Amino acid sequence: MLGTKNLLHKTHKRKRKNNHRSASKNQKSVSKKGCFISRKSGKEDEDGDDNEEGFSLKASAPSHSHGVQPLGNLYLSPSSNNSRNSGLGNLQSLTDELVLEILGLLGGTHLGVLSTVSKSFYVFCNHEPLWRNLVLETCKDGFLYIETWKSTYVHAIRPSFEVSNSGLKVRDFYSDYLFQSWLCANLEMKPEWLDRDNIIRKKGISVEEFVSKFEEPNKPVLLEGCLDTWVAFEKWNRNYLIELCGDVQFSVGPVEMKLEEYFRYSDLAKEERPLYLFDPKFAQKVLQLGLDYEVPVYFKEDLFSVLGDKRPDYRWIIIGPAGSGSSFHIDPNSTSAWNAVIKGSKKWILFPPDVVPPGVHPSPDGAEVASPVSIIEWFMNFYNDTKIWKKKPVECVCKAGEVIFVPNGWWHLVINLEDSIAITQNFVSRRNILNVLDFLKKPNACTVVSGTRDRANLYDRFKKAIEASFPGTIDDLVSKADEKKVQQKKLSFWDSVTDSNAGAFKFSF
């Protein structure tokens, strides 16, 4: 049994701005609530307790060769020695995060040399995210993933040099930070994280109903049956896409990769934050990809189209393995969006614009968001908090063939529950154009506007293009919005002097 005190208590400090993550191993541990974390077997754990209340490791979870343990184990160890400290010498007073920040400044050769200094430096210098960063910085035109990020880096730099991945197991090495990433990469999604499904589902509704009940009131909805006629829904799978796209490279984080390379990576890599293929130019790179799907009828109006090829990025092909996804964010430029799952399934959690998700800390100007490093980490530490909130999130599992409408301004998190392929588009309709224009003319537009190089001038260009294509539209919408505000104020006063339930006047004394 592991101690409960220090396993997860620092997770809220691991913000997305950190580049260096961790990986390590333990067969069985304890969560911050004292629940066992054990390998999934469908049976009771060794102590005879049902594991439903705890966390389960994936059956395929590997044992980390370096033997790093959470710090809580030190308190139950016969030895009071933490080899992490003795191996760092005078640097032992630094936090693990700071040690890794410093090591992140080194190249591969220097990391290799430093790893021979002590067992502690061996563990730190073989920290996989350090090597992942080196690969992503060095191999901008793609890479061939080989078992580990370190092996991948060495193969890319010196293809003839072989790297042993067996690794040394270091005794009595305790570190929450180095343990955390391995834990997040190898935990199963708990059933209770998937059970809540409170989104409104609709099939075959009219455009008028969609607009009046969902787009105008700015409410999410899951739409069924929209992909039935798509060629993509019938044909898109790994083999079809590899054959169709050939040697074309797609955006995967900061690098460009061929699909065959990416699928190899996604099959082999087991990490806290899997790389996500998220390409805004896919239909330009491979014309057939853009012809294999059709924008659902509910989202046909897209006023950014008046800018032609000068419009901001607005559509993406999304491919990722289980565990990949997007942490909490609001879609760019105050646009609304739709996301269609072609293969696989995705868990969605959405909060309305006036509710910031727990564990998420946006900067005052909205330009940056600090949040837990990985999606699993957010579920482990913050999901249960939402159960007692008055305004609970909208949740669902979106399966193949289904489309979710994400209204403007809504915070949302998405995690793939299996290997998934999807298409998503952001759009501007008459119901939302005033919000978009207000966003584009913010004083800090150069910071918050995205998807275009001409951020500062996008407001002027867009407004002029709308006025030229749809004369009087903006003025008409502004007038209607003002009328609506007046009506809301009148309604608010009426409610203040009547009993809204009984319909009679009420008096306060």
UniProtKB/TrEMBL annotation:
PANTHER family: ARGININE DEMETHYLASE AND LYSYL-HYDROXYLASE JMJD, JMJC DOMAIN-CONTAINING PROTEIN 8
SMART domains xref list: JmjC
Subcellular location: Nucleus
Lineage summary: Eukaryota, Viridiplantae, Streptophyta, Embryophyta, Tracheophyta
Needed cofactors: Fe(2+)
Compositionally biased region (Basic residues): 7-23
InterPro entries assigned to the protein according to its UniProt record, in alphabetical order: Cupin_8, F-box-like_dom_sf, F-box_dom, JmjC_dom, JMJD6_ArgDemeth/LysHydrox
Acidic residues bias: start-end ranges: 44-53
Name of the protein in its database record: JmjC domain-containing protein
An annotated Gene Ontology molecular function: oxidoreductase activity
Keyword Iron among UniProt keywords: yes
Keyword Nucleus set for record: yes
Family affiliation: Belongs to the JARID1 histone demethylase family.
Region (Disordered): 1-76
JmjC domain boundaries: 284-444
Keywords: Iron, Metal-binding, Nucleus, Oxidoreductase
Transmembrane region(s): none
GO cellular component terms given for this protein: nucleus
